[in-house]
């Protein structure tokens, strides 16, 4: 089995899941042209299940693709970068936490909180300065906090459930093989 191909397929699968999760529930935010969704749960899963660069790429590409397909083209560049950074940082924190005696759920929650802070700050900056909404962008912070909190809970629950499956063990074996 070609490890690189297998990891690429898993990344493509996570990108597709991220895209669908982002598109399945779409609630417009106040003040800006954004929307609340549950895609961040899949962004977090991409970070926790896959490793660099696969997880962040899946998160960024899947989320950006959802914006494109939903008609939010002006958000595609920002979303792609923000979701990539979220997954990148969540992965680094999760990896570091696994080396400690901290319970897995604590590591997951901490990495998810930091990732969601990146999302909230990233969209505030993107909407205020790059899209030109100015102070109006502050109105979407509450919606982004709700999205972040919801996706932390969903993401952690899904990761804990997946940790009991053969899928995670197979991905972990690919990680181990890559290191050797």
Task: Write a brief caption for the model.
The protein is mainly α and 180 residues long. It has seven helices and two strands, in the order H-E-E-H-H-H-H-H-H. Strands 1-2 form a two-stranded antiparallel ribbon.
Could you describe the 3D structure shown?
There is one protein chain. The protein is mostly helical. 76% of the residues lie in helices and 2% in strands. It has seven helices and two strands. It has helices at residues 3-24, 39-49, 54-69, 76-98, 104-130, 139-162, 166-179, and strands spanning 27-28, 35-36. A two-stranded antiparallel sheet has the order 1-2. Strand 1 and strand 2 form a beta hairpin. Helix 1 runs parallel beside helix 3, helix 2 packs across helix 6 and helix 4 runs antiparallel to helix 5. The longest helix is centred in the middle third of the chain and has 27 residues, at 104-130. The mean pLDDT is 93.
């Amino acid at each position: 089995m070609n490890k690189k191909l297998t990891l690429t397929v898993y990344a493509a699968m996570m990108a597709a899941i991220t895209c669908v999760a982002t598109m399945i529930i779409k609630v417009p935010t106040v003040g800006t042209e954004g929307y609340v969704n549950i895609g961040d749960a899949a962004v977090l899963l991409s970070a926790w299940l896959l490793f660099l660069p696969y997880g962040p790429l899946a998160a960024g590409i899947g989320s950006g693709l959802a914006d494109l397909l939903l008609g939010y083209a002006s958000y595609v560049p920002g979303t792609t970068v923000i979701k990539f950074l979220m997954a990148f940082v969540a992965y680094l924190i999760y990896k570091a936490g696994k080396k400690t005696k901290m319970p897995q759920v604590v590591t997951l929650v901490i990495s998810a909180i930091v990732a969601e802070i990146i999302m909230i700050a990233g969209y505030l900056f993107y909407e205020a300065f790059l899209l030109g909404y100015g102070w109006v962008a502050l109105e979407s912070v509450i919606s982004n906090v709700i999205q972040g909190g919801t996706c932390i809970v969903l993401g952690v629950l899904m990761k804990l459930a997946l940790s009991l499956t053969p899928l995670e063990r197979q991905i972990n074996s690919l990680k181990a093989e890559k290191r050797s």
